[in-house]
Amino acid sequence: MRERKQKRILEESSSSSESQDYDSSYSDPDYVAGTSYQRSSRKNFNINPCINNPNQATEVGSSRRNNGVVATRRRRTLRRRPGASNKSKRGVFSKKRTILSWMIDLGIIFEDMRVWYIRDKEKIIEGTIKRGGVRCNCCHKVITVYGFEEHANEGHVKEPYAHIYLVDWGCHLLGWIYYKGLLRPEELARCEFNLVEPRKDASDLNDDACMICADGGDLICCEKCPSTFHPDCMGMKKIPQGEWQCPFCICKFCDHLDSINSPRQPSSPDSPTKFCGKSCEEVFSEIQEKHLGVRKELADGYTWSLVQMKLNPDPHSNGEFLHEITIGNSKVSVAWTVMEEIFMPVIDRYTGINITQSVIYNRESNLRRVNFRGFYTAILERNDEFISVASIRVHGTKFAEMPFIGTRERFRGRRMLQKLLAQIESALRMLNVENLVIPSVPELVPMWMNKYGFTHIESNLMTELIKYNTLMFPSAVRLHKSLVTHAAASAGLSLFS
Asked: Where is the composition biased (Low complexity) (predicted)?
């Protein structure tokens, strides 16, 4: 048992200054984010971005110790960005968020660039690039890239980015997205392994935040890994004597040492995925093999999809798979710009890690509390424009967690969050997941309970939660929604319908 004094909590007014939230003084004196490095290098796809003509077409204040003195720091809490206060901000929030607009904002492509749709080395139709899609020369309307493909009578192909050709630059759009968008140094840095190392003068090697509630205080330390816990969060009536090992180092099923949950190192391309149980493996396989990256159409032009950053695609994979991975990774990047627009930066006060970004990019870490491997991003779109975004991680069939969900300002008040949440819940039910768990800021608890049917977490579920690595924020309130209720009514739905 060791002492981490609780700091005095000071109220903080909302501020639009991002620099305050990146204040590096809010860090653990014993831990420091080490030199980040890529989990693995991206392999070259079988896509050539630069060809000369279509005939060559291929493709998230801590207590600080200073000589025993506890310094008071302000607590950083999860909050949304304040509403737009001036014309320039309104302009940013009102911009369309699509893959094409993301590329335009990066300066990778430009509006009014000429494009062709090419199939079997033959130009079928022409158009020009716009933020919201392609302006088709045959109907003079701005339509989605998928609509452009349909205008070419190739709607059955469903690989528009692979067949849209940038005339002036002599390359296909899919390859240009990959090489010029996804391989940018800034983008690669967001995918790096979060390496957290003890400082050379560290008094101990354990984390300074509870794995369950993410706050400091009096913590019990695991003897096998850096994880620490509040005894109350663990439901302990007395402090165990002798060496103690946390739930992550003991198998949930047999109480033996669990090598599956040992501290991680960066995954190599050939590292097998490890699971804590059969149900976790089955759910993972179901999502990965059948539903990840699938663009599901809803009524009135809406679509939704589940994506995840993939770093190691097989360069020998077929064109359909490469199209799916490239567009899926691009959607993750656009989803990050949406999250930046919705939320103020959420920075872990002990390690300095950007939690929101790490969740969106499902970044791994050797420090279990900030290991966000396994997160998926759910996206609601209309005509390819991003509307709402959510982060989800599924822990077998017992529960799934959703730490972030939000709707862009210009679409709020139109029940868009309900629309995305309904699809997520339906999908989880079809995967036989029993509960959806969220961390809510206290002031929004009534909204989640009265409007969306969430309730305070039950003791039996909390007993299960402490066995898993779930994302929590200081002062947040855990809520859950049972997905078993009304499951029969959803039995006739397809998984991601």
From this structure: 12-31, 44-55
